[in-house]
Amino acid sequence: MIQIKSRQRSLRRPALAGIAAILGFGLAACSSGASSSAAGPGASGTGKATYTLGVMINDTTNPFLAAMGTALTQEAAKLGMKVDLENGGGDMSTEISDVSDLLAKHVNALVLTPSDPTAIVPAVRTANQAGVPVFDLNSAISPGAQLITYIGDSDYQYGVAEGDMAAQATGGKGNVAVLLGVLGDAPEVDRLAGIKAAFQKYPGIKIVTTQVDNWVNSTNLSDTQDLLAKYPKGTLQAIIAQGPEMYVGAAYAAKVHRTDVKFIAGDYSTQVEAAIKAGQLYGTVNQSPITEGTDAAQDAYDWLTGKKSLVKTPDAYVPLPIVTAANVAQYQAAWSG
Q1: Which domains does the chain have, with CATH numbers?
Q2: At residue 14, what are phi and psi to the nearest 5 degrees?
Q3: Does a cis peptide bond (omega within 30 degrees of 0) precede residue 133?
Q4: Buried b vs exposed e over 114-129: b needs ≥16 C-beta within 10 Å?
């Protein structure tokens, strides 16, 4: 069973007093009955234990995150668990409020995908005080609270892989532009660090500019149009995007005959697969939202049912295979974005 809730966006940076009030309510609500709900299974009426996972995903309109949430929900159902999934709407105050609401419902565990790795920490501490185990999914949470494990990719290694692909595509020299995801989000920060680290091995490569596409297709297109207008043929060798939306800009470049620029994407949607096969994208890093969602449900189930040794801690990294024209036939994309 899945319940998806969304709230109206409010101020991106809420007042500290407002956050404290939200967190205080969540803790008070949990304290009233945490011993029977957070620490153990709910009664199903059949004599069989059931568990409810409280899931907060920062933006379920993002195709990758939506596919991840669906995979998590489906796997949880197979394991006999319920899911209460709330949409943060890309707004930190909403995400914190979502966590408070889930704690007030006495969920057995929390699975969180926050948009800000630091701002979510007080909400995690509230869950810690209520005795509710917290799993970090896809977007890393900063130190300062207790997490069972992080489930997802190593965003740093993800960035390194993108940088190495760009170097391979350009022969290790030339000007490169990088299109960033949501600024301050853990994947954006760590992937950029990985890209820069990879380029340290290639002194002939220079990052001439960075722009922000927020992992949005339409913004990626406008960013790519701007870059191709600013850099004439022969002056820009590659554009790297931190997400799958690069297939949109690459398609535009092919249309206007800018084959001098190589395009690197992240993630592996059906559209990215088609763009690689068409020769528009050089390659991508295949981070699977299906694997991440499925693994999160399984890890939560193992933890709640006393099989804690099966949960990899502190990180449960997923594989990150590289997909290019050389091996694209071996990989079939499992989601659309």
Answers
A1: 2-151+290-306 (3.40.50.2300), 155-286+322-330 (3.40.50.2300)
A2: -70, 160
A3: no
A4: bbbbebbbbbbbbbeb
Count of all residues that appear for the chain in the document: 337
Return the closest-CA partner of residue 283 out of 162, 159, 154. Answer: 162
CA–CA gap between residue 120 and residue 182 (Å, rounded): 16
| Sheet strands (E) in 66-203 | 82-87, 109-113, 134-137, 149-152, 173-180
Give buried/exposed letters for 1-19 (b at 16+ CB in 10 A, else e): eeeebebeeeeeebeeeeb
d(CA 91, CA 233): 40
**Which range, 20-34, 42-56, 237-251, has the best average confidence (pLDDT)?**
237-251
Q: How confident is the model at residue 38 (pLDDT cuts 50, 70, 90)?
A: very low
Provide the edge-to-edge strand list for the sheet that holds 149-152: 2-6, 82-87, 52-57, 109-113, 134-137, 149-152, 315-317
Question: Is 159:176 a contact under the CB 8 Å cutoff?
Answer: no
Kindly give the pairing relationship between strand 283-285 and strand 322-324. antiparallel
Please tell me the distance from the alpha carbon of residue 146 to that of residue 119, in angstroms, as a whole number: 15
The Cα–Cα gap between 300 and 75 comes to 11
Dihedral sign (CA 135, 141, 145, 151): positive
**pTM across the whole model:** 0.81
Q: How confident is the model at residue 48 (pLDDT cuts 50, 70, 90)?
A: low
- 176 vs 227: CA distance, rounded Å: 10
